[in-house]
Each structure stands twice: as C-alpha cells, then as structure tokens.
Write a structure and sequence with these properties.
Keywords: Coiled coil. This protein is mainly alpha-helical. The protein has a domain of 112 residues. Helices cover 95% and strands 0% of the residues. The two termini are 50 Å apart. The relative contact order is 0.12.
Length: 164
Amino acid sequence: MDKIIEKLTRVREMRRDVVLTQVRRQEAVLEAAREALRRAEGEVARLLGAKAAAGRSLASRMLQGPNSARELVGAGIDWQLFDDRIEAARERTLPAQERMREEAQRLEALRETLRRADAKRDQAERTGERIERAAARRAEAADEARAEEAALRTAIAPLGAHEG
C-alpha cells in the first residue's frame, strides 16, 4: 500500500480508537446518570408506598369509630406532609432526568462520530486496496509487455540472421 495511504489509515485508526474510548467512558457516565435517576425514582416510590401504608392505617382507624377533630386534623396534616415530601422527591428526579437526557445525547453524538471515523478508516483502506490493485495491474501489464517484446525479439532474431 502507498506509504501516504498507510499513514492515513493509521491516523484514522488512532482517531477511531480515541473516539471509541470516549464512547466507552460516556457509556459509563450514562450508566451513572441512570443509577442516580433510579435512586431518585426509588425514593419517590418509597414515599408513595409509605403514604399508601399510612392511608390504610388511617382508613382502619377511621372505621373503628368516632374520631375527634384533632385526630382528623392530625391525619390531614400527615397526609399533606406525605404529599409535600413526594412532590419534593419528584422535583429531585428532574435534574437526574435532565442529566440522563444530556448524557444520552452526548453518547449518541459520540457514536455518530465513531460511525464517521469507521467510515473514514474503511474508505482509506479501500483506497489503499484500489491503489494496490492498480499497481498490480500495471506490473502485470509491464510484465506482459516485456514478455511480448521478448517474444518479438525471439521471433525477429531468426529473420535477421538470414539477412546478414
């Protein structure tokens, strides 16, 4: 392969390796972002479960008999506290969701860059192969031309021997 094409292929391979490393790192960053989102969503789910359990407990207490206004107000305050905590936990998931979206977009951009790097490397390899095939065809044509020339000399030589 032509030395320039070989160098170009090596450079493109190195660039591809760099981008591939960036893709792998970004995959790890994205996984960390997903884990943070799972934790935040887990907190929301835990609070929803606690609210449901408190609701069942409250319902069973309310069914047991007459309740004072103080008990009803206390239950209402508890219920509002659950709602406030759940809302706060949901709001804490928003930055995690946004970060995950951003990291996923970065990963997709890097994967596109990797696809382009692969295409450029493959293009350089194909160019090198075309150059090698063309050189082989030229060498073969030169060999055929020399063989024909030698054959003509051999065929003409006996004719020249009779003239002399």
